[in-house]
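FAQ: What does a ligand-bound record look like?

Like this one, built around adenosine-5'-triphosphate:
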Amino acid sequence: MKAAIFTIGTEITDGQITDRNSQWMSEQLTDFGVDVLLHVSIPDDKKQIVDFLNATAESFDLLVFSGGLGPTSDDLTRFAIADYLKLPLVMHEPSWNYIFQRLSSRGITIREEHKAQAMIFKNAIALSNSAGSAPGIQLEQSGKIFFLLPGPPVELQAIWNNHIAPFFKSKNIQNNQKLKKWMCTGIVESELAHITDTYFANKSYVIKTGFRIHKPNVEAKVWYCEAPEVDLEFKNFEKLIAQYLISGSTV
Ligand code: ATP
Ligand code: MG
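The answer part, i.e. the structure of the complex:
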């Protein structure tokens, strides 16, 4: 499954804030066996969002958006995607009830603009937001999956953990792609990579290897397909790196 992540917000493109959502979601998606191939940050500009989608969306099965789901005039993501997909937006009453209660209980004056946060595409699923107002939106359209998520990381991650992670678990994308990680210390990245790549060279169950420095540690990763010899071969690999190994985990 090929994915693109679009982070929407002029505050990202003009340098006021650093985009943290792409990094976080990419890490999560990669662990689920999704290939994230593109990160794009786009200002709060409906035409630019639609233009970018027209230019890039065809290449992807999964399109994830963060930001621009709020009630203010610069929150345009849902309207841009409605234009792009030529889908009407409809009021999702349970979401509106939730938003109404949440704002009222905080003494916030309810305005017409707040209703935009409860508008979702026809046939879409509203993903409840336990950390904020606007629900996320999940839509399957023309063989593609769209997720729209609020920009604040705490909200995005709450929706992700409650809805999107279970969605990917149930999809079982990992059926044919699993990931094993080993955290090591006292070894440089290039050396760990050499040992790992030499050991796993020509193993037919290995899809790819990867390495990352988590100072002061180094992590080795192997994406692989299930095979009868895997358990024993991983144990033998762990003997090779035993003096450096802190922990190992399978995702
Ligand atoms: P809100 O209802 O809070 O406005 P929203 O979905 O409209 O939510 P934005 O207006 O795009 O989100 O962003 C709100 C805030 O969330 C930003 O000011 C920033 O603090 C944070 N934020 C947005 N996008 C990102 C991102 N990609 N990485 C990190 N923080 C972000
Ligand atoms: Mg906003």
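Follow-up question: can I read anything off the structure? Yes, for example: The CA atoms of residues 184 and 246 lie 5 Å apart.
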